[in-house]
Specification:
- The chain is an alpha+beta fold.
- It has helices at 11-28, 37-45, 93-107, 123-129, 145-156, 177-185, 199-211, 259-274, 290-298; strands spanning 4-6, 50-57, 60-68, 78-84, 112-118, 133-144, 164-169, 215-223, 226-235, 242-250, 280-286, 302-313.
- Bound molecules: coenzyme A.
- Coenzyme A binds next to helix 1, strand 4, helix 3, strand 5 and helix 4.
Length: 318
């Protein structure tokens, strides 16, 4: 099985790529919807510079690999994604594709590479046997809203002294936009590259959610005129049974007063009244964010899956 480089993929190649990614996804994540064709194509044709390889097999592809090369700087890591058809695994195909990607990383003078894996899938032993080390875990948690009731009522009544809650749907009210952007910057602790939140960016992000047909709910805690923290949930327009937790943050000087738990419990009560069709809420937490994990577990969220982020030094790759 030979590896070919795919340049400017034609429609047939995009279809073959999507078919292969879908087959691998169904095998490794049987409980999750596979990506839409537009998502796969977007990843292949989007703005960032990239190189693509495939292993032709039958009428389509037996395996594919993509390497994203963001920015021009050699200090930015290249991002590797490899998929091998479930029927063709453990024959060295993944390693061969990784070798192609490693050659391209060297040619581009990139010192490091990153890749993602779902815990419990073959991607973990594959990456760990081929030079990668895990640098970050993200836990996916889910809450059955029907089971959240009693705990939610208790925590929604915490009322830390000096604070009050406000809530809005969609774009933040103008009078709070600057304070809200400042609170968003408080998340920089746990999210790289998120320090550039401005009132404008906050508004645009909410507008994008509305444009997709989804509804954004925000609960915030105020102390006098200052916005001490907030929590956001998005209810998808086309599948409202499963809502998604977006950002939650408490500004550093307001931490340690149970504002996170209070705001999240108030959010759950608001959703129960406003959107009773929401039966599940999903959230992702960095594995090292012990405080947020504890808040979520207190509210009844249970572990769903764990994603791992891997990194390798290019010279350690095959
Ligand atoms: C991860 C994946 C790309 C591996 O492809 P592959 O062609 O099976 O990999 P290789 O045959 O080159 O395996 C190389 C080594 O990885 C390890 N490995 C791979 N799959 C493994 C498994 N299921 N269990 C244990 N070790 C495994 C072994 O050490 C193997 O060497 P060995 O067969 O000599 O023991 C493939 O399973 C896949 O497509 N997974 C879904 C997509 C994905 O999660 N990609 C993320 C990684 S970028």
């Amino acid at each position: 099985m030979d590896v070919i480089e795919v340049r400017d993929p034609a429609d047939g190649e995009l279809d073959a790529w999507h078919a292969l990614v879908s087959a691998a996804h169904l095998h490794d994540h049987p409980d999750e919807a596979p990506p839409e064709p537009a998502q796969t194509v977007g990843l292949l044709l989007g703005g960032v510079r990239r190189r693509l390889w495939a292993v032709p097999h039958g009428d389509g592809f037996g395996a594919v690999a993509g390497l994203r090369l963001p920015g021009e700087a050699a200090e930015r890591a290249g991002e590797i994604e490899i998929h091998v058809h479930p029927g063709l695994r453990r024959r060295g195909v993944g390693t061969r594709l990784l070798r192609s990607a490693a050659g391209a990383l060297r040619a581009d003078l990139r010192a490091t590479a990153i890749a993602q894996a779902l815990a419990g899938t073959p991607a973990v032993p594959f990456l760990e046997s081929r030079g990668f080390g895990c640098v970050l875990t993200t836990r996916g948690l889910v809450l059955d809203t029907a089971e959240a009731g009693p705990a939610t009522a208790v925590f929604a009544a915490l009322n830390p002294p000096g604070y009050r809650l406000i809530r809005w749907t969609g774009v933040v009210p103008d009078r709070l936009a600057a304070a809200f952007a400042r609170a968003k910057r408080a998340m920089a602790d746990h999210e790289e590259g998120e320090s550039a939140w401005t009132p404008q960016r906050v508004r645009e992000t909410a507008e994008q959610v509305a444009k997709r047909g989804d509804e954004l709910y925000t609960v915030a805690a105020l102390r006098g005129p200052s916005l001490a923290g907030f929590t956001e949930i998005v209810v998808p327009g086309d599948a409202p049974a499963c809502a998604f937790q977006y950002d939650t943050a408490v500004v550093p000087e307001h931490r340690g007063r149970r504002l996170g738990l209070w705001m999240k419990a108030a959010m759950l009560r608001w959703l129960a009244e406003e959107r009773p069709e929401v039966v599940e809420i999903e959230t992702d937490n960095a594995g090292d964010n012990a405080h947020m994990l504890a808040v979520n577990e207190t509210l009844g969220f249970r572990p769903l899956r764990e994603y791992r982020e891997y990194q390798a030094v290019t010279r350690d790759l095959p």
